[in-house]
Every structure is written in structure tokens, then in C-alpha cells.
């Protein structure tokens, strides 16, 4: 393995040749794969190249659609970018199931985002606090050139508070700030405001031995919260009363377990994120930010819990999710990436609030699908069926072989070994 200096200065072809020469076995094949996924449209390819550094190809994922979602009485077809089999199918199935039971109901609880200036100060808190309170308006004024446009759209800085953190760390204080960023995810806006706050702070507190360390948004956004819910009469959950009651009871028990048992909760929430991430990614949003914020929220009570909840009263079944989702529908990739633009168009060019609702619904639907399978047939039945094609493709199965395998595995369990045995058998 070889090191190089000045890699970023190489042309794309030179970068590819370098990585093929020093890191890849079958150089010819590797080069042709990397080149195959360049876009023929030079302008578009240049755009992709400018999203990130040192690009040598385009990485692709399946882009699927889950139709028939009724959300707040409006029908949506939800685009999902995901490689995992069963996810889009489970979402579509849940959409259909709940579509004729009133659909999904949602509520955006709040949209507040958070950013912090982390700093140290050697002077006592009382003096620092007085200086801050006396100059608070200066923070807003000196950030005016940054906030002007956001304010025109109804957003801006909502609040700046000073917080004494010295019981956690010597001399440590924060400016803890709240923002409204309307339809933008708002990372650049928030970080620019915070850097300005840092400068203002250093100015007003110059003789208090203040040292600004970091100015950065927080991806923990417990107040940027959305709720999505489905409900129906218990009888509607099965083909007869006993089956329906049994399903409701087992479903609730499964969710209750995820509420008290972290090992199960992590997997339970991972299934929710299958839906959430796929929509976040398809709509050009930062799925790492959403993941980080969601998992922190799941642990907000001191132990990691389920993001979904079930309530059963006399004859009613209610299933809901409450999650922090900080997403945008303007800025970033939203007007640049061709598939992101299509995804947003399919969703009717939603506002950020609408997208929050859609994302939460995708998470709830996914969890319904997963827990439904787990407490009835088990996960492998549906999973392996979808996975069958992946295994067959690994063996370069022909159309005829695939058809035979699909027929055979209708009545046999499609484990990996069973599929491999089957392929070997029909080939020998
Ligand atoms: C797999 O990607 C997701 C599940 O494990 C979720 C769950 O167990 O609830 C099926």
C-alpha cells in the first residue's frame, strides 16, 4: 500500500490510474467499473464532482417508490434510496394496510434548531452574565447581515442564553442558541450566526479572559419534533376477533419490550431508521445528522428506548412515533442533485415541515412492517424471499435458473445454504 502527496491535484483519470495501480488487483476491470459510472453529461458530472473532494466515480443506490401513503388525508408516493431488500416492500404494504383505516395522521410539534458557542472564562459567572445580558441585543444586531434573508422568510435567531457549565468542566460556559430555519436545514446559516456570536462575545467580554473554543450547531434537536400516528378498531387488525386481539396484544408487547430493553430497542429503532434514512437520503438531506439526533432522542430519559409507542384501550389500537427530524427542502443538494429534485417533485415539492411529517410516517410504517412480521410469521420468510434474488445474482443465475428457483422456494425455506445447494443441483 502506497502513500502519495498532491493526490487532490491529479486529474480524475490520473486518480483512477493511481488507485488501480497501487490498490486494485484486476486493474483493467477496476478502471472500467470506476469509469462506467461517470455521467456522460459533462456538466452534470462536474456538478457531482463539486459535491465532494477527490471523486473518481459516482456511487449509486437503488431509488425505489412506496406508493399509496395517505398522510393527513392526502395521498403520497414516497421515494426511498436504500439498498436493503424488503424495506420498500414493507413500507408499501404498511401504506396499503393503513390507507383504508384513515391513513397516517401527523403533527409537527416544533421546528426549533440548536447551536452553541463553547467558551471558557476565568472571571466569575455573575460578572460574565451581567456583561452578556447588558449586550444581548448586540448579538442580534451584529448578525443582521446573516439573518436578514432568513428573517424575510419567517426564520432567524429565536434566543441566545448564557449557560454556566463550570460544574461539568472548569471555566466552561456556553451560549446556547435557538434558531428557526424555515425550509432550509440551516446548517450554514446557524454556523455563520454562531461564528458571529463568538466574535461579538470576544468583543464585549474582552477584559473577562474569555476564550472562544468552538461555534457549531448541535445535531441534537429534541425540539425539532414531529409525531405520526395510526389507529383503528382492534377488530380491523385481523380476519376474526380472536386473531385481531391476539395480534394487537403481541404487537404491543413487542413495542413495550423495545421500550425497556436497550438491545431490542436499538434493533427496533434501526428498523425505523430504514424508513427514515431512505427518505432523508432520497430527498438530499444529511442522514448522519438525522441518525445522530434521533438516537440521542431515544436515550433522552437516561436509557435507550423505543421511538414508537402503542396504546390499546377497550377496542382501539393506537400506534405512534415521536422523532426529531431536522431536514430541509431548499438549499444544499435539493436544487442540484437530479434525483433529489425528482424525489422532491414526486412529493409535491413539500415544505420542510411537510417533509418532517413524511419522514416520520416512513419510520412508523417501517416499524409497523417489521414488528408485524416479527410477531407473526417471523422476519426471515419475507426477508429471504426478497434476498433470494440477491443470492441468485451473486451466482450470475440466468433468467431460467431464477424462474426455477423462485418456483422452488415458494414452498421451501430460502436460506443462503439452501439457495446455494439448489443452484449447484440444477447446474450439475
Ligand atoms: C432489519 O433491517 C430491521 C429489523 O431488524 C427491525 C426490527 O427488528 O424491528 C427487521
From TrEMBL:
It comes from the Bacteria. Pfam families: HMG-CoA_red. This is 3-hydroxy-3-methylglutaryl coenzyme A reductase. SUPFAM superfamilies: NAD-binding domain of HMG-CoA reductase, Substrate-binding domain of HMG-CoA reductase. Its EC number is 1.1.1.88. Belongs to the HMG-CoA reductase family. It catalyses: (R)-mevalonate + 2 NAD(+) + CoA = (3S)-3-hydroxy-3-methylglutaryl-CoA + 2 NADH + 2 H(+).
